[in-house]
Amino acid sequence: MYCELPTAEATTPTRKRIRELAERTSNGTMMRLFWLEGTRELWVEIREPEFDVTIVIPAEPEDALEAFHHPYAYAAAHNALPQATETLASS
Predict the structure, then answer these.
(1) Is 75 exposed, middle or buried, given 0-12, 13-18 or 19+ CB atoms closer than 10 A?
(2) pLDDT, position 79
């Protein structure tokens, strides 16, 4: 019996999972550290309920905990602060 196996092109690509590595809250602001599994891509997500915004700051793997514990200082030192959006500018 002859059976042809599917080629790599015919297989469904696996999706990489996003893993939450840490979470903390300070004065109502929530910080979460994420990692895209199988890569060196990490980022800190900061939820500012006072302004109703979420800020995402990319982090180098070797500095991920520094970025998590001091996200604004890390972002300023690494030129990673996002530009103010209309929501922030009008507040």
Answers:
(1) buried
(2) 86
